[in-house]
Design brief:
mainly alpha, two-stranded antiparallel ribbon, about 350 residues, 3 domains, about 5% strand, 14 helices
Length: about 350
């Protein structure tokens, strides 16, 4: 009996070492191998793999964005174990795999590893607002009651309702988050406007011998830009987003041809009467009618401080004024002359060409 115990203790470390080598080798293979041999071999993952192969991220390994089985800790191992057990037991399998909000936020942390500039710009923009910024805003909550539609733009990946998120749902506060830990989470993460697996081409250098490609003829790429719809729980490509009919009184406004406008207006939308400037709409009318949002607002940061310089000289030839000092909302939010809707009549109200519009 003693001899058997001795042999056991001799062989046990050897067995554990062999097991560790096999496990480490298998794990290393799983990480570096072609996804078709690993992740995509599961029929639940295969549809996502197929879209990835046609995306701008097709040269990037799955683990760069999704991490490994061990990176997610116990949660990740539990999820993987459930998938394996469901196959062993032949129980019904969820073929329609979707990312939870927690997983979306984890993936966003991976995004900034490559898109450092974009992430820092987003962080400095209004689109980085947290749940507490949006749902505990006293001024907004007293003038407009919180409702189920708030999450359409502010919390697209949140699985609950507004009632589950904040209380009370009324115009009388004080308001508080039901789960205080959610207060600092962003309401508009990267995947709100970006579908990582959407069709696109990896970035390449232009053909420097062809001036048309590196100048005006250069195509503007909108790789991965799309809208995540909370109700449908899918992304809609820009090409599939409708161009809204915007009215200025009874006149139809010429909306920007830029497809990104169709994305912006999904949240910065007019009222049900489609009047320009109503609700959260900022579709340009007047002298800026037809201009794209991106003509003035930098992507991600929404920064527009130097946008006037793109089109206007230091001083207008007609008004002899620096447009950046004119009395518009560009200078003062209290101004009645919103830069999105300023018209010729705002400056020349007598119709004679005489300027009646003064600097502040």
């Amino acid at each position: 009996m003693k001899h058997k115990f001795v042999k056991f203790f001799i062989w046990l470390p050897i067995f554990l070492v062999i097991l560790a080598i096999l496990f480490t080798g298998s794990y290393a293979y799983w990480i570096v191998a072609n996804p078709e041999k690993t992740c995509a071999s599961c029929h639940e993952i295969n549809p996502s793999h197929q879209t990835w192969t046609a995306s701008a991220h097709r040269d990037i390994l799955c683990i760069k964005c999704h991490g490994t089985a061990f990176e997610g800790g116990i949660h990740s191992l539990t999820e993987k174990s459930k998938m394996i057990m469901s196959h062993i037991k032949s129980s019904p399998v969820n073929e329609d795999i979707r990312m939870s909000e927690d997983q979306v936020l984890e993936t966003m942390e991976k995004c900034k590893d490559c898109h450092i500039s974009e992430f820092s710009n987003w962080l400095a923009s209004g689109h980085s607002a947290s749940y507490s910024h949006i749902f505990l805003d006293e001024k907004h909550n007293t003038t407009e009651q919180l409702n189920f539609d708030c999450l359409r733009c502010h919390g697209m990946y949140y699985s609950g309702t507004t009632n589950d998120l904040v209380e009370p749902v009324s115009t009388e506060g004080p308001w508080k988050m039901k789960d205080a830990s959610r207060g600092d989470l962003p309401t508009i993460p990267c995947l709100t406007c970006h579908q990582i697996h959407s069709p696109g081409t990896p970035a390449t250098k232009p053909d420097y011998s062809n001036p048309n490609i590196i100048f005006y003829g250069r195509a503007i790429q909108n790789n991965s830009i799309s809208l995540y719809n909370r109700n449908e729980q899918i992304h809609f490509d820009l090409a599939n987003l409708p161009t809204p009919v915007i009215l200025n009184g009874t006149d139809t406004v010429k909306t920007p041809a830029d497809p990104v406008y169709r994305l912006c207006v999904q949240c910065h939308a007019p009222s049900v009467w489609h009047q320009a400037g109503s609700s959260d709409d900022h579709t340009p009318t007047g002298v800026h009618e037809g201009l794209s949002c991106r003509a003035c607002h930098d992507p991600h940061s929404n920064y527009q401080r130097n946008s006037c310089d793109k089109c206007h000289p230091g001083k207008s030839k007609n008004c002899k004024l620096d447009v950046k000092t004119m009395n518009t909302t560009y200078v003062s939010p209290e101004s009645p002359n919103d830069i999105h809707f300023v018209s010729c009549q705002d400056c020349h109200r007598d119709g004679t060409g005489t300027r009646t519009f003064q600097s502040p």
